[in-house]
Design goal:
Residues 119-138 are annotated as: Disordered. It comes from Actinokineospora spheciospongiae. This is STAS domain-containing protein. By secondary structure, this protein is α/β, with parallel strands linked by helices. It has a domain at 28-118: Transcription Regulator spoIIAA. 33% of the residues lie in helices and 29% in strands. It has 4 helices and 5 strands, in the order αββαβαβαβ. The chain has helices at 9-14, 41-54, 73-88, 99-107, and strands at residues 17-24, 27-36, 60-71, 92-97, 115-118. It has a 5-stranded mixed beta sheet, covered by helices on one side. α2 packs parallel to α3 (73-88). The longest helix has 16 residues, at 73-88. 27% of the residues are buried.
Length: 138
């Protein structure tokens, strides 16, 4: 018998993962926002591996993890598989990360094999324009 624990709408929203794909020329950017864990690993794996292995127009794959709040250890294996798949096909893979996700990747020594670019600010959302603030700086 499986136990089920009720989750509030706020808790449900924190457990979601949004994946967006953007192509510019021969570069494909896959941006993730939210948590990448056991519950969300399947769509993450599919998006990354499909682009790394079957997209004939991609020469360079950028994985943007700057808006990821949690990356499970098991999900880091997907990054390594995608990197190796890109290498076999003559493609490059670059990972943009910051905060705890960057620290986790560095602690695992994956930065020795993967090309990881530290980011100091989150990646801008392609869907929203920056809101103008009411502050006037003179």
């Amino acid at each position: 018998m499986a136990l089920k624990f009720p989750r509030s709408p706020h808790e449900q929203a924190q457990r979601t993962l949004t994946i967006t794909t953007h192509r510019t020329g021969h570069t494909t950017t896959i941006a993730a926002q939210g948590r990448i864990d056991l519950a969300t690993e399947h769509p993450w794996h599919d998006a990354l591996m499909t682009t790394a292995t079957t997209d004939p127009t991609t020469d360079h794959l950028i994985v943007d993890l700057t808006a990821v709040t949690f990356l499970s250890w098991a999900s880091t294996a997907v990054l390594l598989r995608a990197h190796r798949a890109c290498t076999r096909r003559g493609r490059t893979l670059t990972i943009h990360a910051r905060g705890p996700v960057l620290t986790g990747l560095q602690l695992t020594s994956l930065h020795d094999e993967l090309h990881i670019v530290p980011a100091t600010t989150p990646a801008p959302s392609p869907r929203r324009q920056a809101a103008a603030s009411g502050w006037l700086i003179a």
